[in-house]
Design goal:
Structural class of chain A: mainly alpha
Number of domains of chain B: 2
Order of helices and strands of chain A: HHHHHH
Shape of chain B: globular
Largest sheet of chain B: none
Helix content of chain A: over 70%
Number of helices of chain B: 6
Structural class of chain B: mainly alpha
Strand content of chain B: under 5%
Number of strands of chain A: 0
Oligomer: heterodimer
Order of helices and strands of chain B: HHHHHH
Largest sheet of chain A: none
Chain lengths: ~140, ~150
């Protein structure tokens, strides 16, 4: 999966496009993963159940990938668990403060041409690039 | 089937499809995500194609959704109400990007990678949930005082 994969990545993107489309057209929901997860805490009834079904679908999808083609998870990352913990925490803080992640702002927000989402996406891609440049000693 | 059941089935299908698309697109491989962010190194622009593919479909369907009064399964559209580009949005996006660069995982792929049977995604997701809960607690308290 390493190296430039324009075809697979475009196909993957089209499938994501179908998923976000079904959710908005049929149930009026934005498929922003950070929001679906973050707002499940404290939710009840129908407001909780659809979130759990969606998140369950994501995890079951991961299990299926593991059975069919575990290579999609890449080689075990050399990123230490401490870095994973700190980075994961920052992802949680940032997506909550900024109300969205790669799917909510990047896919759904840009699809509906929301200026807020376009700006958010440019910012998190920029700081992501800066972070990798620093950690890999490119600067 | 009741409407609530239909909505749950829909959500499960969308979650599964989302996991399929993320894996197919290369997003479940944190090293590939970091290679996309590594513009000053050996840059892999593949993830632009993931975004492009998703938006190419979403642009049309979100337009169609905006013209409708109600979604097909009833209820209302949950369009985001926030429109202001404020300091909180910019700070949040900036912090998220740092975490994304450090781990190579944004929320969706991290959840899918829970299925990989490795420890790293479990650590990433647990701390992500902690970060969400901590931020919710702080912003709620600030909201009460404001």
């Amino acid at each position: 999966m390493m190296g430039f994969t324009p075809v697979g990545s475009t196909l993957g993107g089209l499938v994501l496009g179908v998923a976000i489309s079904l959710l908005i057209l049929f149930d009026g929901r934005i498929a922003g993963i950070a929001g679906i997860l973050g707002r499940s805490f404290g939710a009840r009834g129908a407001e909780l159940s659809w979130r759990l079904y969606f998140l369950g679908g994501l995890v079951v999808g991961g299990l299926l990938w593991r059975l069919v083609s575990p290579g999609v998870f890449g080689v075990a990352s050399s990123t230490g668990l401490g870095t994973m913990a700190i980075g994961g925490f920052l992802v949680g803080v940032g997506t909550t403060l900024g109300n969205g992640c790669t799917s909510g702002h990047g896919l759904c927000g840009i699809s509906r041409l929301s200026p807020r989402s376009i700006v958010a996406t440019l910012v998190f891609v920029a700081t992501g690039m800066l972070t990798v440049a620093v950690t890999r000693g490119r600067l | 089937m009741s409407n609530e059941k239909k909505k749950n089935v829909l959500a499960a299908i969308c979650g599964l499809l989302f996991a399929f698309g993320l894996g197919l697109g290369g997003m479940t491989n944190p090293l590939k995500v970091q290679a996309f962010l590594d513009v000053l190194g050996k840059w892999d622009p593949s993830l632009l194609f993931v975004m492009g593919g998703g938006i190419a479909v979403g642009f049309w369907t979100f337009r169609a959704a905006k013209r409708r009064a109600h979604p097909f399964l009833g209820g209302d559209f949950g369009w985001p109400r926030a429109t202001r580009i404020d300091a909180q949005l910019l700070a949040g996006a900036a912090i998220f990007g740092v975490g994304w660069g450090l781990t190579g995982y944004c929320p969706g792929p991290a959840l899918v990678a829970l299925g990989a049977g490795r420890i790293a995604p479990v650590v990433a997701v647990s701390s992500m949930v902690l970060g969400m809960l901590a931020t919710q607690a702080v912003t709620r308290r600030r909201g009460e005082h404001a």
